[in-house]
Give the backbone structure.
Amino acid sequence: MRFQVSSDNEVEMAAPVSIKEVVDALDGAMDEMSSYVNRETGQVITVSHEDLHLAEEDPVPDMPDWQRDAVAEARSVLESDDWLELPKKVDIHEWQIMDNFGRSLASDSAPCARVVVASR
């Protein structure tokens, strides 16, 4: 595999990932869907939980073609370690993200960023 985990437990991607695709997947997130990013290709996909469940079972012979394709995509997610699940909306804490960003800035600009975040 071409990805590596750094000493900070961060995953290094082998391919660039479109931030727009990630944001679109997060913005369109629903309770019955999960989105994934492929660390080898950078592809972002959204899969229904129903398709993931069907992918764990034996193929259904009378399944429509569109659903057969969706289940095959879900199966590839389940069978490969290359897919990373994106967080759900409930897992995204905007204030904490902004606070962490402010704390990561150089010390001369960080106090300004922390004041802005704290004032929200």
In short: Residues 65-79 form the longest helix (15 residues). The radius of gyration is 18 Å. Residues 90-120 form one domain.
